[in-house]
Structure formats: C-alpha cells, structure tokens
Amino acid sequence: MNEPVPPEKLDVRPANEASWDDVSAVFGTTDYPGRCQCQRYKTVGHHWSAAPPEERAARLREQTACGDPGAEATSGLVAYLEGEPVGWAAVEPRTAYAGLLRTRVPWTGRREDKADDGVWAVTCLLTRRGFRRRGITYGLARATVPYARERGARALEAYPMLTAPGVEVTWGELHAGSRQVFAELGFTEVNRPTLRRVVMRIDF
After folding, report:
1. CA separation (Å) from 139 to 3, 110, 157?
2. pTM of the prediction?
3. Residue 6: CA atoms inside 13 Å, Cβ hemisphere, count?
4. Tens digits of residue pLDDT in 28-50
C-alpha cells in the first residue's frame, strides 16, 4: 500500500471531466484541505475561513465545473490511481487567483504585470489522505506543465516551500509543494521573498 507511485501510473484529468464525488473524496472534510477547499488564493477581502464550510465547497464545485466535459474552463486537475481519485492540483491563469494577486509574498522584489493572463500558476498540490508520502505530488506537478502550455500559457509559476531533511513541515504550510518538486521539472527559482518560500517559474 505504501509503494511509491511513478507518475506514469497516474491518470490525470481536468477537473471538469471528474465527478464532484471524486473531487470531494480527495479533499475530505477533516484536515486542512477539507477546511480550505482550495479557496485560500481565491478569496479577497477576508480570510478564506470566514466563509462557512458549505460555501467554500460550493465555490470549489462551481470553479471546477465538475461533470461538465464541455466547460470552457476549470480550476485544476484530478489524479486517479487504478480508478481511485487520489490527488488534486490547482492550476489556472494567475489572474484567476484574486487573493494571490493581493498578497505580498509572491511579488516582493519583483516587477511583474499582475494582469498578464499569459502567466499561469500552480497554487495547490493535494494528495488524498491514505495515499500520502508515495510521490503522487510529483506526478501531479508534472501534469500541470503540458496542461498549462497546451492552453496557451507562456509561463507557469509555483510558490513552493523550502524543505530540509529531517525537518517536519505541516501540510497547511506545504500545500503549494516543495522546491525540489518543481526544480526536478525544470522550473527555475526567480525570487525568494521569504526565508521559506520561493517563486519558481518555467517559460514556454
């Protein structure tokens, strides 16, 4: 049950091609993902936790357009392992994340046009409880690159955390992934706004 999962074993699909039941299964209801429902960078004006849990889930359902393969847009990718939904990656044009555009960290020391919708962003990598620590994050992150490029992105950014061997990091801090994951995919560090966060980017 705990064997590493090679990226090629994952079936990664746009969330609008997945069912809402599958997305809900990945997020769960008890720990940080179940509480956030991927609204941290979507929320403007107040902390994401100010909205009731049911409202956060309803927002995510609307954003993903689950069950509508013909939808013009969706907010992420769902990974399956042998037919079981096991992971989620939030990836969209950077302009879709109103909260991200307002927060200070990704922009410190940068001169960026925040309104440039040719730049996409990966803001969350989530592995379902019971499937964690098996490398599923790597397969999810890898899938975001062709997904964004094929939809017209000129560049893809991520805002991962620096990790150190033997130092435990809570999932709430690591929701955007680790630097190593994106470095192995060819992303380049373009900024280090805090001691623990970096901005990684790949240009197409």
Report:
1. 14, 29, 17
2. 0.93
3. 2
4. 876 788 889 999 899 887 777 78
- Are 125 and 136 contacting, i.e. CB atoms less than 8 angstroms apart? no
Tokens for 165? 């061997």
**Residue 80, burial from CB neighbour count under 10 angstroms (0-12, 13-18, 19+):** middle
Residue type, 42: K
65: left (phi over 0), alpha (psi -120 to 50) or beta: left
d(CA 138, CA 174): 14
Q: Which long-range contacts (CB under 8 A, 24 or more apart) does 2-5 make?
A: 2/133, 2/134, 3/134, 4/134, 4/135, 5/81, 5/131, 5/134, 5/135, 5/136, 5/139
Residue ranges of domains in the chain, CATH in brackets: 7-203 (3.40.630.30)
Judge whether residue 168 has pLDDT over 60: no
Reported as a single tens digit per residue, the pLDDT across 59-107 is 999 999 999 999 999 999 999 999 999 999 999 999 999 999 988 888 8
Q: Count other C-beta atoms under 10 Å from residue 17's C-beta.
A: 18
pLDDT tens digits for range 112-158: 899 999 999 999 999 999 898 899 999 999 999 999 999 999 999 99
Q: Which of 102, 100, 137 is nearest to 121 (CA)?
A: 100
* CA dihedral sign of residues 2, 161, 106, 184: negative
Three-state SS at 95:
helix
